[in-house]
Amino acid sequence: MSGYAIEAVGLRRTYRSRTGWLRPQRREVEAVRGVDLTVGNGELFGLLGPNGAGKTTTIKLLNTLLIPTAGTARVCGHDVVTQTREVRRRIGYVFGGDRGLYDRLSARDNLRYFAELYGVPAREQKRRIAELLDLVRLTGREQERVEGYSRGMRQRLHIARGLLHRPRVLFLDEPSIGVDPVAARELRRTVADLAATGTTVLLTTHYMAEADELCDRIAVIANGTIQALGTPAELRHHADGRQVLEVEAYGVADAQLAAIHALPGVREASVTVTGATQVLTVQSDAGVDVQAAVLRELDGVRLGRVTARQPTLEDAYVAIVNRINAPTRPLEAVGG
Amino acid sequence: MIAVGLLLHTKQLTRSPFEIATALIVPVVQATLAVYLFRAGGEPGRLLEAAVGAGLMGVWSSVLFGSGGAIQNQRWQGTLEMLMLAPRPPALMILPITLATAVTGTYAMLATLLWGRLLYGVPLNFAHPLLFLVAVPGCVLGLGMFGLLLASTFVLLRNANALANTLEYPIWLVSGMLVPLTVLPGWTGPIAAVLPTTWGARAVQEAASGGPVWPSLGLCLAISLGCLVAGALMMTHVERRARAAATLALA
């Protein structure tokens, strides 16, 4: 058997669609353009990337839901195209959001059904379901219909469902999306516990802190290809030689952002919105003080706190992802 | 697994407010249509036949829209991918759904008869009451298996409901659920002969009004079994195509 839990070589996936009847127009989108990666047994591996980068497509290629246009992938030594059932026996899949459960059934009924589907022996089902309800802290609420559950509870039920058959490899596709901070922390603890017990986890997320805290290694994917791969510490080096200025502001216009991006020494500039506040993040060459020039460009904008700091993993991620973008294009909001 | 799936999918289906509203209204409408149709045709003596036929239409609608709609619903709920990820033949994932739609359709039959009795005084004088109790579940089972063949087609289509709509009336018409096959054009004969709905409907009608039930029921189940095998093979093929065409999920 292979020493890797997951191996992908030259994985590609093109989506083809056709619109119109009289004059049909064909459209092709290359979602994944040659992904190579290996994930060791028991490793917690992160796949980071902006929306549309190819994270979910990659996961679906690895978990047999999609067939690759080219390339090969193996999970626990089994080919994802020709040995589908062998792969499915060994994997669990959890995705974020409200969907994927039978809302009008109770949590227990959902788990009971999927236990049957995933081949959990009948004599073990009751014990296993109780064990998992306990693990995801839904004991006592298991008889309630899922339609009455909060998003965090649904997400925890998703995880319980994904673990029913004790998968060797767990695919977690943005499991913390839309989950409140407390629930997200609990979720991270659950994922860390799983990895500690030897389950291989492939996690996609938008949240850098989550990836930084949990992952042994991270691959940054953008435009369907892996742009960088390494431990969180190694990835941070992508922001070496830079410093970061953060400015809280209210009403930064696109033109101002573009002007800041064009300032000498500025490498990246982006605005993220949190509630009513904008946070302008400017990455510049270390040793070049851009603060005065940036504040000059923001003349007339109401400002809050201004902070200079060292680059984080998130800054490194932004640097990696923006390397492939047009040089003059201001950064989009990252995260969310 | 099929039993647990059938039970839980029936539970899921029967808790839908839309299903409940439909179940309350449609049988009344169907019973009314059938009774007035036969009265207008000057055959008031065949009201039981009319009510049974209307009930069968309810079972068929439930299977047809259930098979198409249930798979579409699985897509909307995000559960279709989770079902297909199970390490089982794809047909086994879908069969409990189509059987559940047939089981919930049985309610339409019972409700139509009940409303026919209460509102229009349709006499419930079954020629073979016990055989009727066998023929209805047999027919339901047959239609559930036939549903799998339909479902295997529906998996590929993002707008499966469009196909379901076009199939509803022709099938119950050609199967002789309400109108005798003898009044239909000759070319419909061969189509009717290969549809399990024809033989299932005939078995139920014979149990209600008199006639040899077993041959019709046997033929219904035999053809349905053929549909089940064809549906299972097709489902395996279709599942692979859906993975290639990325039609399992909405996105």
Task: Tell me what you see in this structure.
The complex is a heterodimer of chains A (336) and B (251). With 336 residues, chain A is an alpha/beta fold. Chain A folds into two domains: 219 residues, P-loop containing nucleotide triphosphate hydrolases (Rossmann fold); 87 residues, ACT-like. Chain A, domain 2 (Alpha-Beta Plaits, 2-Layer Sandwich). Chain A is built from eleven helices and 14 strands. Chain A has a six-stranded mixed beta sheet, sandwiched between helices. Chain A has a four-stranded antiparallel beta sheet with strand order 2-1-4-5. In chain A, a hairpin with a 2-residue loop joins β12 and β13. In chain A, α3 packs across α4 and α4 packs antiparallel against α5. Chain A is globular, with a radius of gyration of 22 Å. In chain A, 46% of the residues are buried. The C terminus of chain A is likely disordered. Chain B is built from ten helices and no strands. With 251 residues, chain B is an all-alpha fold. Chain B is globular. Chain B has one domain. At the A-B interface, α2, β6 and α3 of A face α1, α4 and α10 of B.
How is this structure best summarized?
Chain A has helices spanning 55-62, 84-90, 107-117, 122-135, 151-163, 181-196, 208-214, 232-236, 254-261, 291-297, 313-323; strands spanning 4-19, 25-40, 44-48, 70-75, 78-79, 91-95, 169-173, 200-205, 217-222, 225-230, 242-250, 266-274, 277-285, 302-309. By secondary structure, chain A is α/β, with parallel strands linked by helices. Residues 326-336 of chain A have low confidence and may be disordered.
Number of strands of chain A: 14
CATH architectural group of the largest domain in chain A: 3-Layer(aba) Sandwich
How much is the average pLDDT of chain B?
82
Give me the Rg of chain A, rounded: 22 Å
- How much helix is in the residues of chain A? 25-40%
At the third CATH level, what is the topology name of the largest domain in chain A? Answer: Rossmann fold
Strand content of chain A: 25-35%
Largest sheet of chain A: 6 strands, mixed
Report the portion of residues of chain B in β strands.
under 5%
Residue share in helices of chain B? over 70%
Distance between the termini of chain A: 39 Å
Content-based structural category of chain B = mainly alpha
So what's the overall shape of chain A?
A: globular
- Determine and state the CATH class of the largest domain in chain A: Alpha Beta
Count of helix runs of chain B: 10
Through-space gap between termini of chain B: 29 Å
